[in-house]
Amino acid sequence: MYIVLLGPPGAGKGTQAQRLAAATGLVHISTGDMFREHVRNGTELGKVAKSYMDRGELVPDEVTIAMLLERLEQPDAAKGAMFDGYPRNVTQARALDEALAKRGAKIDRALLIEVSDEELVARLGGRWMCRRCGAVYHERNDPPKTPGICDRCGGELYQRDDDKPDVVRARLEKQKPPADLIEYYRERGVLRTVNGEQPLDAVTQALLEAIGPWPSA
Ligand code: ADP
Ligand code: AMP
C-alpha cells in the first residue's frame, strides 16, 4: 500500500506519518527530513536545498524527484510507503506514479489534512524537532516529557530555521497543496480529506478510517 499525505506546512503531516507508520508498519518517507539530513551532512545536494529552504521555497523538481526515486528503490519501500511532504505538485505526482507503475503499484490513498492559516502559524511557531530521529513536538500542544530532549531517542530538540515568522509567511504563501494536485488525486478516486484541527489522537483516528480496512488486519 502506498499513501501520500497532503497538507500545508504545519498541518501535522510529519506527526501523523510517524503515528500511521507505527500503526501500519509502512516506512515513513519525508523529503523534508531527507533534505535536512543532507544539510546537516553538508552534502552538495544539502547546499542546493538549503538555499531554497531558507527562503521558504520548494527545492526544484529535478533535484527532489531524483532524490525521492532513489529512496523508493530501497528494499524497505518495496511493498509500500507513507510519503510525507511529497508530492508538492503534479509533476512530482506523475514521476512517483510512473515509478510505482513499473512495479505494478499505485498510490492507494491521498490523505489531505486541512487546517486554518491562523492555526498553522501558531503550530509552526511552537514546533520543536529532534536532531537525531526527526520526531516532532509542540511546546504547548505536544510537549516532550523533558524540555529540549526527545522522548523517543533522547536526542536534542531544536527549532527549525524555516519556522521563523518571515519564512513561515513565505511557506504558507508558496507551499499550500495546489488545486491541480488535489484534483489529480480526486480524479483517481483516492483522495480523502480529514479535519486536521482536532486533537492529535482524533486526527490519527480519522486518517486510519480514511485509509480504510488494512490488508493484514
Ligand atoms: P507538517 O509536517 O505538516 O509541517 P508537523 O507534523 O511538523 O506538520 O506539525 C506542525 C506542528 O504542529 C508541530 O509542532 C506539531 O507538534 C503540532 N501539531 C501537529 N498536529 C497537531 C494537532 N492536531 N493539534 C495541535 N498541534 C499539532
Ligand atoms: P517540510 O519538512 O515538508 O516542511 O519541508 C521543508 C522544506 O524542504 C520545504 O520548505 C522545501 O523547501 C523542501 N521540500 C520538502 N519536500 C519537498 C518537495 N517534495 N518538493 C520541493 N521541496 C521540498
What structural keywords apply?
Rossmann fold; three-stranded antiparallel beta sheet; single chain; 9 helices; binds adenosine monophosphate; five-stranded parallel beta sheet; 217 residues; binds adenosine-5'-diphosphate
Q: Biggest β-sheet: count, sense, barrel? A: 5 strands, parallel
CATH fold annotation of the domain at 2-116 and 177-211? Rossmann fold
In the CATH classification, which architecture of the domain at 2-116 and 177-211 applies? 3-Layer(aba) Sandwich
Taken in chain order, the helices and strands follow as: EHEHHHEHEHEEEHHEH
Residue-averaged pLDDT: 96
- For this structure, the quaternary state is single chain
First-last Cα distance: 13 Å
Number of strands: 8
CATH domain class of the domain at 2-116 and 177-211: Alpha Beta
**Quick one: overall form?**
globular
Number of helices: 9
Spatial strand order of the main sheet: 2-3-1-4-8
Determine the structural class based on helices, strands and strand pairing.
alpha/beta
Bound molecules: adenosine-5'-diphosphate, adenosine monophosphate
Descriptive overview:
- With 217 residues, the chain is of the alpha/beta class.
- The chain has a domain at 2-116 and 177-211: P-loop containing nucleotide triphosphate hydrolases (Rossmann fold, 3-Layer(aba) Sandwich).
- The chain has nine helices and eight strands.
- A five-stranded parallel β-sheet has the order 2-3-1-4-8. The protein has a three-stranded antiparallel β-sheet with strand order 6-5-7.
- Strand 5 (127-130) and strand 6 (136-138) form a beta hairpin.
- Helix 6 runs antiparallel to helix 7.
- Residues 7, 9-15, 123, 126-127, 136-138, 141-142, 196, 198-200, 203 line the site of adenosine-5'-diphosphate.
